[in-house]
Prior knowledge:
Chain A is α/β, with parallel strands linked by helices. Chain A has 17 helices and 16 strands.
Amino acid sequence: MGYLKFKVTAKEKKCRARTGILRLRHGTIKTPELMPVATKATVKALSTEDLNELNAQLLICNTYHLMLKPGAETVEKLGGLNKFMNWKKPLATDSGGFQAFSLGLGMEHGTGKMAKYFPGKSSQNPDTKRRIQKSTASISDKGIEFRSVYDNSRQFLTPEKSIRIQEQLGADLILVLDECTSPLSDKAYTKNSLERTHRWAKECLEIHNTDQALAGIIQGGQWKDLREKSAKYIASLPFDSIAIGGSLGKTKADMHKILDWVMPHLPENKPRHLLGIGVVEDIFEAVERGVDLFDCVGPTRMARAGYVYTTPKEGNVKNKFKYKITSSKYKIDSSPIDKNCKCKVCKNHSRAYINHLFNSNELLAYNLASYHNVHFFLNLMKDIRKAISEGKFLKLKKEWGIK
Amino acid sequence: MGYLKFKVTAKEKKCRARTGILRLRHGTIKTPELMPVATKATVKALSTEDLNELNAQLLICNTYHLMLKPGAETVEKLGGLNKFMNWKKPLATDSGGFQAFSLGLGMEHGTGKMAKYFPGKSSQNPDTKRRIQKSTASISDKGIEFRSVYDNSRQFLTPEKSIRIQEQLGADLILVLDECTSPLSDKAYTKNSLERTHRWAKECLEIHNTDQALAGIIQGGQWKDLREKSAKYIASLPFDSIAIGGSLGKTKADMHKILDWVMPHLPENKPRHLLGIGVVEDIFEAVERGVDLFDCVGPTRMARAGYVYTTPKEGNVKNKFKYKITSSKYKIDSSPIDKNCKCKVCKNHSRAYINHLFNSNELLAYNLASYHNVHFFLNLMKDIRKAISEGKFLKLKKEWGIK
């Protein structure tokens, strides 16, 4: 058992929404919370100072990228991830399992995020793009074989190796290696995959021997029996925390169903992390169903693509609470990104200036938009926590126009 | 006459080095000082918060770029440059004259900075590169004709238009339109050009009617008689400030000579701005000869190319006080960029981390390296001011290994 303490501090009566206090080695997190993603040991375009200002409580880094560059041994020699990236608060790492999906089946099925588009700087390097698209991952009972996006070298990740690497990286909360199946995988494939994922979960648990908290991952695709089986099995093991992995079906309704199937089988006293979800509507729906933790690259990825988030009424379900700041209609708009927002960017800068920075390819554009977007999500989570503590979560959800 | 007050506060005995207090509409600047360049209304990769933390006293923006994007009228409608970019301290703009050189003769002669290399983001866009290389500028007695780097549209800048645009942009200190000749221009060309530059200087002075301070520019290439003539002429006109423009000859010795020719003819009570110079050695040599103000894109441009500055002994004249942080030798180096540096980046981050950020194309790399480099130069200027006030400038110069 790793170091993790979790206490539910308030619960809604008409739904499963709850607030909690999560203690990890590097500090305390109020839940529900969204963790900004620091893929390569940096939340893209933001400094750790920015993240401290934003009161980010917990970040999550990417094992697949860091094992390749700068390498887990390098990070270990430099004192671990917290020291390496100068982040003094809690830190999580994923297991590399998601990349088995996004570089493997996700790519083949055209459903992986990476297969669709590459916003931000790296996308402008045609070499990187070509290499990534040629890369694949394949999975066997032993582990996941990757081609490195950096040098196309062959990489093999086993459950044990994923844990050892995450131990070297040294985050407070780590994840077991799993397979994230595709929404296009059939039931037979998903069932087989789930059995393997369960074997790997147990193996990771047995192998792991540091005080890092370890989370098991529930899979099972879009099938009720598989999801229930997985929820029961993962809940039965002595994990510190429980994560719910995708694919979460093809539609939003699928995601709701999956959460409804899974939640009754999870213990009250362990935090629940819905992996990779970060659309406003989904966050409300998932919190309503009892989710405590989220992680998503959306806020910063969208920022780099020129999308900024905004609260109701300007933001709504239809526009996904965001708009494109690069549009010419903001060229002489002296108002802030979001009139209701109290972040530094909205206090200091106009839409016109940010529009100009984007249209001039100025690096500051990415910083300002990322800062605002992360603030938007962390502030949303804060509002959600406050609402739950006052028994007003469903009222808040309604105010945001989410049915 | 615009709003500018300048007072010399200390003078060295064995050279022309001096400290001063320069008052502009938005505040007070201690000289000698280097102004970070905010080409397109942003110092690349830095926020105005960063620049406030760094105690930057004065920034300079680029008229050529801003007249094209977002346009001087847009900036004016949005309340002027200070408000547009949320910079509350003094601001300068250049006249567009330097671009006549860098996009015209500089390009043809292969001596312009822009003809040589394009570090940073924009360089990675092959379209931008192609367009810039095809663009040219040509000069006549009426003004400078440019091709826009953005859309290849024809642009015409006259002395009057440059002043009007700079009035719309609204900086505290503005510059007359001049022609910056190439080091390869012959004496006949330079003499003719100088006469035109002088006519334009007078025209700008007569046209200008706001409280923005106006600086005249001394040209004359590498010829003693032309430089002396220009110094005397510009000094004879009621400019608020005096700038010395390049080309400053072909060698460092040429630059020293030019400053030695010019300085005796300049009034004590006006600030002297050496345009576009920002190499450590040159700063010492120019301060020694009586220069008060510098501006240079070097600190941030070098940062984006992966070069970081460092103080003696690690930094020296031979390595130009910088080294390449992207080198593999820094991969597991847990020391800061510069052991003697007290900036936020050196306090918080290792060479290894910054090396990783650069090698991973992470945007934070540009911010951290730019922050350190600007700190390096502003701190150097602070040390220079302190040394002069204590009569120890030549001692400091020697400590930096500059003969």
